[in-house]
Specification:
By secondary structure, this protein is mainly β. It has one domain: monomeric porin ompg (Porin), CATH 2.40.160. Strands 1-4-5-6-7-8-9-10-11-12-13-14 form a twelve-stranded antiparallel beta barrel. A two-stranded antiparallel ribbon has the order 2-3. Strand 8 and strand 9 form a beta hairpin. The longest helix is centred in the N-terminal third of the chain and has 16 residues.
Length: 267
C-alpha cells in the first residue's frame, strides 16, 4: 500500500522539478457493491481507489500507467461474496496503456494485469492478463465507444494456442456529460457487453457466444477546487438471458442497483 503514495510523490516532484507534461488523476470510489461485467462479486460496501499517471507527448500520443484496487470494507464476511473475505484488498490491477488521437477518434491500446492478493482470489477466476483496444468518437452530442478485451492467459493456456477469436469480450457504450455550471456537471452512460463462446464458458459457465451484460448509470460531479471534486453515481446492472443471452440456469441473474460516492484529485 505504501508503493502508490511513494510513486505519486515521486511523479509530482519530477513534474515540478523538470516541468514535464505529466498529469496525475487520483480517485477513490466508495460503492455499495462490487460489480464486474454484470456479475456481482460482493454485495457489501467496497472502496475502489486508483491512480493514473499520464505522460502527454502531444502529437505522438500519451502513455499512462494505472493502479486500481478493490478494498473490501467488510472483511471476515463471506455472505453474498465471491471475492476473498480474508483481506481488505482482494483485487489489484496494473494497467499500462497508450492513446493516440486521429481527428475526433481516440484509440487506446493497453494491457491489464489482474492480480488477486491472498493466493488467487476470487475463487473463480484466478489471476489473469488481458489485452484491450478502445475507440472513442468525440463530439458535442455524446461519446460512443467500442472496447474489445482479449483474455490470453486464463481463458487459454498460451498466447498463440487455438483461435484467438474464441476468447474475446466486447463492450459498446454511449456517454454524455452535461455541464450545468463552471463547477457542476451531470451525466450518464449506457453500455452493452458480449462474449465469444469460449469466454462465456469460462466466465459465465454458459457456452455459446451471446450478449452478456447491460448497464445504465447516472452521475453528478462538483468541483470544489481546481484540483479536487466530489460526486455521486447510481448504477443499474444486469445479465442477459434467453436466446440472445446467457444460460441463466448456469449463472445467477444479478440485476442490481448499486452506487456510491466519488472523490477525485487532479494534479
Amino acid at each position: 500500500m505504501w508503493i502508490i503514495p511513494l510513486v505519486l510523490m515521486t511523479a509530482t516532484w519530477i513534474h515540478a522539478a523538470e516541468n514535464r507534461p505529466l498529469s496525475l488523476d487520483m480517485k477513490t470510489d466508495i460503492y455499495s457493491a462490487y460489480v464486474w461485467r454484470g456479475m456481482v462479486l460482493d454485495r457489501h460496501a467496497v472502496a475502489q481507489p486508483s491512480a493514473i499517471a499520464t505522460m502527454n507527448m502531444q502529437n505522438a500520443g500519451s502513455f499512462s500507467a494505472k493502479v486500481w484496487m478493490n478494498w473490501d470494507l467488510s472483511p471476515g464476511s463471506s455472505h453474498f461474496k465471491v471475492t476473498s473475505a480474508d483481506d481488505g484488498v482482494n483485487v489489484l490491477n496494473f494497467v499500462p496503456s497508450y492513446t493516440k488521437a486521429f481527428g475526433p477518434v481516440d484509440i487506446s491500446v493497453g494491457n491489464t494485469w489482474y492480480t488477486f492478493p491472498d493466493t488467487g482470489k476470487p475463487k473463480k477466476p484466478s489471476n489473469t492478463d488481458e489485452f484491450f483496444l478502445t475507440m472513442k468518437y468525440k463530439n458535442t452530442f455524446a461519446t460512443p465507444s467500442l472496447s474489445v478485451y482479449y483474455d490470453y492467459r486464463s481463458v487459454r493456456q498460451s498466447f498463440q494456442e487455438d483461435n484467438p477469436l474464441k476468447d474475446l469480450y466486447a463492450r459498446i457504450a454511449l456517454d454524455k456529460i452535461i455541464p450545468l455550471s463552471k463547477s457542476f456537471s451531470v451525466g450518464g452512460t449506457v453500455l452493452l457487453g458480449c462474449g465469444t463462446s469460449h469466454y462465456n464458458a469460462i466466465r459465465y459457465c454458459s457456452p455459446g457466444g451471446s450478449l452478456v451484460d447491460y448497464q445504465t448509470s447516472v452521475y453528478m460531479s462538483y468541483a470544489c477546487t481546481d484540483t479536487f471534486s466530489i460526486g455521486t453515481t447510481l448504477v443499474y446492472t444486469g445479465l442477459f438471458g434467453g436466446d440472445l443471452g446467457l444460460d441463466l440456469d448456469a449463472v445467477s441473474p444479478d440485476e442490481i442497483f448499486w452506487g456510491g460516492v466519488n472523490l477525485r484529485w487532479l494534479l
